[in-house]
Amino acid sequence: MTTTRATTAQAKTQQAQTIAVEVKAIEQVTPLIKHFTLAAADGAALPAFSGGSHIIVVLRGATRVYRNPYSLLGSPHHLDTYEIGVRRMEESRGGSRFLHENVSVGSRLEIAHPVNLFALAKIARKQLLIAGGVGITPFLAQLEDLRGGAAPYELHYSVRSPEHAAFLPRLREREGDRVHMYYDSESHAIDFDGLLSHQPLGTHVYVCGPAGLINRVLTTAKRWGWPDSHVHSEQFSAPPVGDAFEVFLARTKVTVRVPPDQSLLESIEAAGVEVPYLCRGGVCGFCHTRVLELDGELTHNDHFLSDVEKSRGKSIMPCVSRAHCRSLVLDL
Amino acid sequence: MLISGIKSKPVYSPLSADTHGRYHLMLAIGGAATALERVLDELAAADPDALTRARVLFVPSADTDPFADRPQLEVRRFPDIPTVLAALRILLDESLMGTRLYVAGPESFIGRAMQLALEFNMNPDEIRAEALGSLARRVHCIHCRTLMEDVHTNIVECGGCARWLLVRDHYSRRLAAYMGVMVDAEAPGTLPAVQVIFP
Fold it and tell me: Are B105 and B28 in contact (CB under 8 A)?
């Protein structure tokens, strides 16, 4: 699997500068997904981005700050607004609930500069996009880059039922029969073997959606001999809730308590200690932190560390991972 | 005189089977076929069916044919390099994702096979190559863009513009050639000793 590498300079820029934006429009596109249109509060053009990019949205709640990653779904050719699609997550820390319930047209938010960890391979001979649910969002922007290009492409989009097919009218209008729909409610599933066993040499496959879908694509592609460099996936994990625990930061000599509904990274930040980050979703590897002492177990929820590294217990990605422990000392 | 440490200079290693691949497309020139025999043995050891999804394109030399005792293997024989490359292009166009390319032969041949593979967006993790045989280089004159085959010496006279060129280690995968740069630009007519360094 290939993820696009970002630089430390990008991470620093992203954390240092946020952009004040105003919510221009909100549309409920499915029972669970709201479509937000944002524009710079000062009316200026927003930074350029490429299809597959995400932004971090900073949400200032009454008692805490959320920083959630969302893919940009608007056209990279139109920088007067950014568009994001937010699925309401019930069993989570509350960032998406905050966006659904507390944000309205005219609300002011802060966003960080876009970063692309899910870029298209521009020299592919064919592009195969596979989306599940709200995982459609990065593809909406990528399709704007693909349309009119020389390489053929197709989108395979799987959702629970027709009412959950977010942005389908837009897709149908722009992409026509390049969109292939699959509905769980009609027991119509993607034929992964059929799809991945007969693609011409030089095809790249991209998958974004729930973990189950991503794993099916990755394992099926591997079985049919796809090399890692042609397989791209993006899954932002929302930081899972868990038991409370305490962590001691060795360099800054601070003890931080991590409550059940706050991530380790958020708790460390709330204590005034900065950790470099880019995606806050367990993908990019920037918040990689050394574990100095551990009495208990780490709960790794990221897609960055290898299984061996996870079992070794010497490092943790605090954006999404937690611990069940009597004591934990981090190199921060 | 040659500038070393240039990162674009290709590095090769002994061929081994990539058992994650589903289809195996193999090319060999003459005696380099022995490297493919090793790959075929490894593939067969990992999965006896793998050889039914393997194909060999071979330019035999003299009268040795190392593939004679593998009746189940599809081997196509070609008289020379242009014909084997023409067949490779047709096969790459028909090939599916999951194909691995193995090339055994002189470096200049590997370069031309890789150049074709690049057109089909094959990446380094789909191609394995072992350089065996002549080190003679394809040289691209950066001044007039003439391409010279079979260059054995450190300095060569360009067949297009007649400049004396230093053959650099700077390699272009797109052109499948090393760059040749005018060697006596500052002091016309003053040439270093011409030596055979790519035997």
Answer: yes
pLDDT by position in tens, chain A (length 332): 444 555 555 555 555 689 999 999 999 999 999 999 999 999 999 999 999 999 999 998 888 888 899 999 999 999 999 999 999 988 777 889 999 999 999 999 999 999 999 999 999 999 999 999 999 999 999 999 999 888 999 999 999 999 999 999 999 999 999 999 999 999 999 999 999 999 999 999 999 999 999 999 999 999 999 999 999 998 877 788 889 999 999 999 999 999 988 899 999 999 999 999 888 888 889 999 999 999 999 999 998 999 999 999 999 999 999 999 999 999 99
In this complex, the residue of B98, B120, B121 whose CB is nearest that of residue A225 is B98
ipTM of the prediction: 0.88
Which residue from B92, B95, B123 is facing A227, i.e. has the nearest CB? B123
> Which residues does chain A have within 8 Å of residue B95's beta carbon, measured at their own beta carbons?
200-201
The C-alpha atoms of residue A37 and residue A60 are separated, in whole angstroms, by 18
Q: Which residues of B19-30 are buried (b: 16+ CB within 10 A; e: fewer)?
A: eebbbbbbbbbb
How far is it, in rounded angstroms, from Cα B170 to Cα B4?
Answer: 9
d(CA A275, CA A285): 12
Residue of B22, B98, B120 with shortest CB distance to A125? B120
Question: What residue ranges define each of the domains in chain A, with the CATH number in brackets?
Answer: 8-116 (2.40.30.10), 126-234 (3.40.50.80), 245-330 (3.10.20.30)
pTM score, two decimals? 0.88
Chain B residues inside the 8 Å CB shell of A201: 92-93, 95-97, 99, 120-122
